[in-house]
Amino acid sequence: MSFLELFKRPGLIGAHRGSRSSHPENTLSALRYSMGHCDFIEVDVQLSSDGVAVIMHDDTLERTTNVKEKEIYKMRVPYRVSKFSYEELSKLDYGGWFYQNHIRSEVLLTLKKVLEFIRENKQYINIEIKDLHDSFSDEQVVSTVLGEISSFDVSEFILLSSFRHEYLSMFKKRAPNIPTAALVEDKHPDYLIKYLKSLKVDAYHFNDELVDEKTVKELRNAGFFVNIYTVNNPKRRQQLFDMGVNGVFTDYLE
Q1: pLDDT value for 254
Q2: Which domains does the chain have, with CATH numbers?
Q3: Of 28, 29, 63, 107, whose CB is crowded by the most CB atoms within 10 A?
Q4: How far is CA 144 from CA 60, 66, 123, 147, 162, in A?
Q5: What angle, rounded to 10 degrees, do the helices at 192-199 and 213-221 form?
Q6: How far is CA 91 from CA 125, 147, 174, 220, in A?
Q7: At 58, phi and psi to the nearest 5?
């Protein structure tokens, strides 16, 4: 079953950065725990300074790593991910910040490891590509992500999304078999349906504050799948499903 076929099922639950309420976000332990508790998992991808695709939400390291504890990196403020090499990133702990008394550590998760996870578990994954245009060309970002994916026979389990819509058009041209989703926050693009059709995306992801029943209906009637973030209230989740929303991203898995 492809990702688009999955979207035909009602009431889908997307694990936002894995099970981030119970495990450190965007880590292998978060992905593993999510198995069986959701319909698909969402992770975030960006590039190290030497072009390795790594799994990280923030564009800086201090919230979800121990970078500030490393004396060798004290002059690297604001600790931008794009300014650290893969080797440097690999030396950090990605779990201790989450657990009381730093009782557990987590290693760096890469896109390659995520793809291996998909292949082993047949798990659907929404890969969000962060907007990296200030540090890397669109060509490098798209080529790196697709280059990794092409090494694994898992395209049916992948959905590519981004707030940088230029990536989406490029993905669709180069890998039309992989579904794409446009991400927005705070404001819908003008002439929304026409705009999404110009991008040739399959889905539209937007924040809960933008939701209204009329827009959801228009999107669904136009053939787009609709997924809403971040919905942590079960009652609100059901309201959205009743409106016709396909899926929600949540931090809390039941």
Answers
A1: 76
A2: 3-60+107-250 (3.20.20.190)
A3: 28
A4: 20, 27, 22, 5, 15
A5: 40
A6: 26, 25, 34, 45
A7: -70, 150
Query: Can you tell me the distance from the alpha carbon of 139 to that of 172, in angstroms, rounded to the nearest whole number?
Result: 13
- Does the pTM surpass 0.85? The reply is yes
Task: Give me the residue label for tokens 């890469």.
Answer: 110
- Max Cα–Cα distance, the chain, nearest Å: 56
The residue behind tokens 């959801």 is 216
CA distance 168 to 179: 9
With a cut of 90, say whether residue 158 has pLDDT above it. Answer: yes
CB atoms within 10 A of CB 211: 17
Separation of alpha carbons 44 and 30, rounded Å:
13
Distance, in Å, from the CA atom of 178 to the CA atom of 116, rounded to the nearest integer, reads 17
Long-range pairs, 130-135, Cβ under 8 A, ≥24: 130/44, 130/45, 130/46, 130/56, 130/57, 130/59, 130/162, 130/163, 131/162, 131/163, 131/164, 132/46, 132/47, 132/82, 132/164, 133/164, 133/166, 135/47, 135/80, 135/82
Residue 103, classified by CB atoms within 10 Å of its CB into exposed (0-12), middle (13-18) or buried (19+), is exposed
| Confidence label for 102 from pLDDT (cuts 50, 70 and 90) | low
Structure tokens at 150: 């092409």
17: closest CA among 56, 64, 72, 66? 56
For the record, the structure tokens of 50 come out as 């030497």
